């Protein structure tokens, strides 16, 4: 069921370069994360660490560190901002699990299955509060502005998704607006604060933001595809989750638009009305393959990946720049 | 079923003085609230305004304005900070309703009953993000520090309450730690940022914080009493909600400690195991009356109210100071 798409240069599609270049800083980020989830209220570190230590790649905080390096920032603030970005991400995951009623996250039972919705909501709030405290400690009002705007935009994107939920008439543009908000905005903010801390020219800040935004869109589109044919074990979620939850993603948008009346009736029945039987997921994937919906979603992802790479063009060649280009390739290659 | 307690000076127990003195600023706060709940995602203003315009007293933002006046702040920042405080409060209410599975809030169906848990979680997140954006716009890192620390502490208090939930062995000290976090901290922060903006001496900042903290504790204790015998219509919630939810509040803590073995068995059965029949609420109130648990909770509230008034002592006499003293009396007099 894996999706096979042509991918030009699978060599160099790796995050290893990035991981190596930010390793020393990441150790400090991890120590910060550990200390800032501490609380006398033992349920807080339990819930937070269940998710934080469950083997996420920590791509977002690595991006903050990377862009700070790329723009030759020499201070300390990027470590706390990177930890804050990871906290914002973790808070979003905790709240998402409640919203989506998810049972699994990263191959483990989700926090809400273990501690309940209540703890997921409240520990998420705690982490958001801690994230803002760390940002305040760094003391850059510009960085605070970027990250607090991102927090509002992320929530707005999630509400947008909720409003569009189960609506098969969602357009590709509407769907893009949703994922810009709910996913790409945090990538963009995580990247933008690096050159902001380094007090680099506006053009470099904008370029960094653009890199993050387009990488984030590509990342989400590939995620959408993986949900219909990916390596579930590796992802830690089940193939078909989006389908069962009636989530409208780009593969659905494309298959619906390109489908016949009877096919559209199938999408409406399963996604809008939630009437799903055992063979329906296979049927859905069959329709997506028939209309090249998964392949074309990957093509769209490559488009945004290319924009991300181009956004980096104004930075001179460096090992970090190469590593960031490889991260784009890695995110796209996950679909293999 | 109303609780009758001696109250020394019911005259002057009013928020009218405060309301009058901050009226002009409150208009600007209300306009700010309205504009900052705006979003192209129509569900956001719908959900937010359902709660924000449902007739809360807006006591917390009024306190921010009042303390800014009292300390002769001459700028504009207090308006945005007051709106941010109200957003933080509203976000907490939205998330609380999900955590408590509440059906009513301020006499109306709760947002989660009308739009679902998902919308309540996400719109809460959006309001928190907008609150931080406004704080950033004001540009005071000290105020940001105070309010972001409050956000983390509030969530911590809520998790603490969750962990103590249904545990009849909770001590009075443990319960005080919970309400310091979940309720009083926001009162404290709302008051503290006034003199911080005005750049007043540390002693005035601490006094303002102390006023808010003790007022907040008194406020919560009276709320706890009202839940066992208050004016439900006025409160907009039902008498006995805390009891039915197995919430441990000070009246329960006192009645449990002072009760016989068979009475303790009753509290454990109803609050820890949730086995409640129609006559149990009356029985619970009977036990509380027998042990003076409601009266003594009110006495405790008066103790914190007195501390709040004393905290104001270092400020010279002024109409605003008198109005703030009357607010304390008002909060206590709600129990009549």
Automatic annotation (TrEMBL), chains A, B:
One Pfam family recorded for the sequence: polyprenyl_synt
Keywords linked to the UniProt accession: Magnesium, Metal-binding, Transferase
Source superkingdom: Bacteria
Cofactor dependence: Mg(2+)
SUPFAM superfamilies reported in the protein's UniProt record: Terpenoid synthases (SSF48576)
Keyword Aminoacyl-tRNA synthetase attached: no
UniProt cross-references to InterPro entries, sorted A to Z: Isoprenoid_synthase_dom_sf, Polyprenyl_synt, Polyprenyl_synt_CS
Protein's organism: Bradyrhizobium aeschynomenes
Family per similarity comment: Belongs to the FPP/GGPP synthase family.
Official protein name in the record: Polyprenyl synthetase family protein
UniProt xrefs under Gene3D superfamilies: Farnesyl Diphosphate Synthase
